[in-house]
Sequence to fold (348 residues):
Amino acid sequence: MLILKVLSGFFILATFFPLIKWDHWWVRVFDYPRFQKLIMLLLLLLFWAIFADFSSQENRGWMLSLVLSSAFLFKKVFPFTPFGKKMIKKVDFDPEKGIHLLVANIYQYNRKYKKLLDLVSKEKPDLVFLVETDSKWEKAMLPLEKSFNYHIKIPQENTYGLLFYTNLEIVRQEIHHLIDPEIPSLELDLLLRNGEKITIYAIHPTPPVPGENDQSTERDAEILLVGKKSKNNPLPSLVIGDLNDVAWSYTTELFLKISRMADPRRGRGMYNTFHAKIPIFRWPLDHLFLSRHFALSGLEVHRAIGSDHFPISLKAVLTETNHTDTLKADGDEKEEARQKIANGLTLN
Fold:
């Protein structure tokens, strides 16, 4: 029973640890495996039910704690199941007023270039955004320049390079280093085929992991800064990329409230994009958020391309009516977002 108590205690603490609003990596890392923690709690509850003496008040206390922890995690995970409430409605795809885009963290040291090229050839998206691209990936992706009229290439050897390809006309192009001078992001205005103008924010902030960034401060600041940009932008907009944060984290939810954008995963599924090589440790790290001007036509996670991430694609259509059901920030949350952005900006 000692092992059962130790494991139960650990997973109960791991359930509520992310509620501590500290930016340290050893706190924020517990944001990621919520579904895995839920499964472990349910398994532990089963073991208690089989092996525990119900006449013991202590054992009943352990089981009640496991039940409450499971209920808490279920509430957090439930919106990302097909039974949850959808944030954005689905409509038929119209290529004239729609966009089909593909996002992939290709993993800088992955050399299976052909898998990515084959995927692009098969999907034929309007836009391709690749992150972690170095000079070798830039060279390997040269065939895409024959298929796409516009391309932005920022290869870097620090795992934060970007490659961007599209057949939609780029009418405004800005390359930002929002928080860290070594981490680029894109802000682009594109013309859809019907002449409507939209904005794309393409980002890849740092993860809170030891050896790279001990805190989530910079990541949170970049995500929220882009959220504020999108909220203040009158044009229809999308925020895309590997955000190095899960869909159910406090920061991502705060982003949704600040930006008033919709997450197409909600009410449909988790659509896990990481880790491609370790099935038991998978969660949604790569994101595609839409402003209220869009409705959803398709969302798909694709087969592995040799990276530790799966590629993900989305089809969205501009609509005349609002097809989204978004979250809204209160005064305290707006102030918290401002403070998080300020904290990130002061670090560099």
Summary: The chain has a mean pLDDT of 95. The first helix runs from residue 2 to 16. Residues 2-80 form one domain. The radius of gyration is 21 Å.
